Amino acid sequence: MGTTWSLRLDNPRMVALEEVRAAAQAALDRVVAQMSTWEADSDIRRFNHAAAGSRHVLEPEFAKVLACALQWAAASDGAIDPSIGPLVALWGFGADADTSHDAPPSPAAIVQALERVRWQRLALDPDTRTAIQPGGAALDLSGVAKGFAVDQVAAALQALGLADFLIEVGGELRAAGRRPGGDPWQVLVEALPGHTHRVPLDGMAIATSGDRWHVREHQGRRWSHTLDPRTGEPVQHALASVTVLHPACMEADALATVLTVLGPDDGLAFARRHGVAALFVCRADAGPRAFSSPAWPAASLTPTVDAA
Length: 308
What we know:
alpha+beta, 3-stranded antiparallel beta sheet, 7 helices, 15 strands
């Protein structure tokens, strides 16, 4: 997945750290083997290069992540789309990035890519875990799979009898139990420059999406890896980042992507309708501003001023 992972834990049973590390890495390796577009022999790469009309029985994990992406695609009218792969490559991101030039793609190239980006073309039968390659579809589950990987590591740790831990993969986190001493695990979320929000993760996961990471620039135009599958363009609104709290990190990851694409107004309305706990940070002429959905915990809204 091109990132790192870390783990904090209370280990009263003294489970060997080598065993803990191996269990976490095995869970991550399984996600990579199925859903990494960077691995030439991964399941997702084989699906993306398969012939039109071919039928594929997906591994349970792969099917679960694809089903989650399709669920939120339907709920958001396509603000997240698991078939976004052609656009990701066109704009110079991902394993298949078009590196033949630095300039943004032409309108004609965007239209051509959009013909392959329609989540409605993906026929997934959740009962049989069967998906059909409609022809030219290129799945990219980056907006969901990393959060799912966090959940998989959490399950692997719990299978070892560990009940109190904080697992992080590439900035997405999930907590279980408590810190040594009984306090909840906590993370700091930057809302405004110099101000952070201390968020307790009591059996919760947290994921952030935004335009401060993975960016490209050409002749003064700057664009991020967050693309709107409906238009084929990078998002261009004032939203800088969205942080989502949810019991499952897979859902938090997917929803952070949805809200980032929808933007500050439509994103907040979506969060209200679906009861999503979200913290939004927007750019403004007078300086950044932060606001939250009603489901965001009020206790975490008092900012902590960072030391100079």
